[in-house]
Amino acid sequence: MRDLADLAVEAAVAAGAAYADARAVSRRVQRVATKNGDVDTISDGETEGIGVRALVGSAWGFACDRRLSAEGAREAAIRAVAFAQASGAHSPRRSIELLPVQPEVAEYASPVVRDPIDVPLDEKIALCLRADETLRHADVRITSASTRAQRERRAFSSSEGARIYQELVECGGGIDALAERDGRVQIRSFPSTHGGSSAQGGWEYVEELGLEREGPRVAEEAAALLRADPCPPAVTTVVLDAEQMALQVHESVGHPTELDRVLGTEASYAGTSFLRPDDVGRLSYGSELMNITADPTTPNGLGTFGFDDEGVPAERRPVVVGGILTGFLTSRETAVATGDGAGGSMRAEGWSRMPLVRMTNLHLEPGAGTLEDLLADVDEGVYLETNRSWSIDDKRLNFQFGMQVAREIRRGRLGRLLRDAIYTGITPEFWGSLEAVAGREEWRVYGLTNCGKGQPGQHAHVSHGAAPARFRGVRVGVPS
Amino acid sequence: MSSEPLAQHALELADRALRVAEADEADVLVHAERSGLARFACSRVHQPTLIADEAVSIRVVRDGRVGTVSTNRTDDDGLREAVRRAEAAAAGAPPDHAFPGLPQPSKPPSVKGFDEETAALAPQDQAEGAWTAIEAAPELGLYGYFTSAVSATAVASTTGIAVSHAATDATVLAIAASERESGYAEATSWRAGELDPAEVAREAVEKARRTRDAEEVEPGTFRAVLEPYAFAELLWYFAATSLGALALLEGRSYFSGRLGEPLFHPSFSLADDGLDPAGFPRPFDFEGVPKQRLALVEEGVARDVVWDRRTGKRGGHDSTGHALPPAAQAAGPLPLNLSVAPGERSVEELAQAVGEGIHVTRLHYLGVVDPREGIITGMTRDGTFRIEDGRVTAPLLNLRFTTSFPALVERLLGLGREVKLTNLSDFYDERMPHAALVPAIATEALTIDGPGSSPGL
């Protein structure tokens, strides 16, 4: 793979590229899922190929080929250069400048105790069936459990001399209970609604999730929601659990701080941003308790690597400090446009997509105290747990999240269960109302595998560390 | 069976994989793609992507145990390794009592959907399509893409299935925008020659020009016109959660327990038609079962949902030819060729029917809040206007809506007489274009929660 990446870069330069990089990638993904005590899915997929990015004059071109062969590498390179030439044919003659980066010759591998791909399928099936069994309940109509395992090998070469090999291993799992009575449906999930949670690392992560342990509680809560009152409409204090805080960070901080969105180059699909390039150091994003860090070095993060897909080394960087915007997620090209530093956020899905500015691991830094401490200071409010639906506008301002569970907070204690809760807000107003973040002991890292962006679309795997947090003056209710 | 070279290649590959499998019971799905997408932003082609791939899914059945794998290593060694993994998966699995057995061969219908000129488009042509749009909009920044592709699907099985099909698709999408205005347009077809990138760009510019100085509206339930772009996306989110048999059987669908009931306005009829040459026709699904025109709603009455063979066995229903590829089959069958019967009104007449209300061009980032009740949230974007006295007037801020799709369609005020093929593909994963044929609609029941961002970048 490494030699093929070198060969592709050489071919692109020979064909006229001023700069070129290539990624030879091999990926294997296994999924096992059970439903109502039966095996629902056993899939085992592998895909491999090489993607070449070429810069010719004022335009990029990208082409890929599934063949991990000299012929495939050469043809992809030549097609990338040809597409760059065609794409720049009408462009004003302006050159694209890339932030200088020391070309590295290096290797990186996820620390793994037990490679999840090597765990036998029957062991994965057995785990899912056991977890599935713990979800049985008279009111639960559908029980499901799932695991996934992935191993990806990436060889990166650039015309500047970078030569990087990385082996990234990840896995995850989750359970869901769907309760139904009289046409009303409620769902509870653990540890997350998005097919569970994933992390980089070995099978030990899945074993430590405790799917079997959590099953009875998840089922009981799904059933209890059938009898719960709807969440009454109010503007009130809310406490969000760590899982929802992870998604809140993702949607309302992660995406708007992607510099390609700020500069408009994602406008035709995912949208732009309410932020402007000169907001760094000036814009008040939230209260002084808001501290956000991009950290591709986080142990077990899905966005953890040695180097991004431009060969930029992983580096922990603050994005919001004390409520003030301090930086963007960048590429080598966009970083030059703003002078915002070293980048390290360019990622591509597999071998057949062009790298884009992406989140890596983006965290809400912990504050102090426990969840109980956050609740204790609330005279009247709502505690919201586990995301159910999500939507946010093209500039990442107006958001609405639906939640699986709401609980009344009265005089500092959790009260009755409430169903079908949604909450809405406008990003800087919402973060401005942040009045507490729980401490390190409540801080968890959640891994998402469904972050969509780009045309053609590509999914990124990202993680977010978060602890429960409290916001005042938030609009809650049920969908009309 | 298609005589197009890529379809022939796909079928030969499927046959070869089946021979390598040497199994008593097995089937193979091959999907091959050659695509180019010239993405542009700020009136510059910035992310042009060429993809060449072919993938093989192999399903092996041993004593009622099923193992499914996929690979894009299509030499004999790669196929042998995939078969070994499939057999290992089957050996490690318990018997699959819900598996309906492999499909039997059935002659697929003859459909169109392949265009030589579209298949022949080179990267230079795709870039030129993008630049034609860009140069037609010199007064505003243009954002979007021009894309075209040829893809082929083949299915072969030990039961005797041996079918293949090649399809082409092309789409041009444009947002014309500045800091304070934005407008949207798109066109899609399996014949690239039917697309006019310059006209799409001009439509986006014309729409954008009318979005400056947008106003707010108070939350409430409004009478509204939804252009085909907006209605198609809303319909797709409803369909994906309510019009598949798995959701029906599991009680998650709005149609669960409601088949045969008049759920919508009598003027609303909805079909899934995989044979219609006005859409993206396909002769068979991803298990090789023939496609058909299937009535889902007739004159407001819920008639059926779409079925594959697995849900069909469970629900006592024949497959309607809507199986997804193996990697996606856990989601159940889906309607990928939705078609809404047109009405008799022009868009202007729909606004007149609304009288006072809102005109919506397109939507953004939809989420299904309550699938059982068909409640969907999202934002309007790139062209939201007030309707006053039956005419489209002042621009509005982008609006958050959380609305009941069934109520929206139950309280129709009218349907447009023109249907538009509206692209629903974001081109994730393998290239499998799908689109909906829909008219604009007028409704009494679009529920707005409040304003969001302003039009523009």
What do these coordinates show?
The complex is a heterodimer of chains A (480) and B (457). Chain A is an alpha+beta fold and 480 residues long. Chain A has two domains: 2-227, PmbA/TldD fold, CATH 3.30.2290.10; 230-477, no CATH class. Chain A is built from ten helices and 24 strands. Chain A has helices at 2-14, 70-87, 121-133, 204-209, 211-225, 242-254, 259-262, 332-338, 371-376, 427-432, and strands at 19-35, 38-56, 59-65, 105-109, 140-158, 163-181, 184-190, 197-200, 229-230, 234-240, 292-294, 317-321, 324-325, 346-347, 356-357, 362-364, 380-392, 398-410, 413-419, 422-426, 434-437, 444-453, 458-466, 469-477. In chain A, strands 1, 2, 3, 4, 5, 6, 7 and 8 form an eight-stranded mixed beta sheet that branches. The mean pLDDT of chain A is 96. In chain B, the strands form three sheets. A six-stranded antiparallel beta sheet of chain B has the order 3-2-1-4-5-6. In chain B, a hairpin with a 2-residue loop joins strand 9 (293-298) and strand 10 (301-302). With 457 residues, chain B is an alpha+beta fold. The model of chain B has no long low-confidence stretch (mean pLDDT 96). The N and C termini of chain B lie far apart (47 Å). The chains are: A alpha+beta (480), B alpha+beta (457). At the A-B interface, strand 2, strand 3, helix 2, helix 3 and strand 17 of A face strand 1, strand 2, strand 3, helix 2 and helix 4 of B.
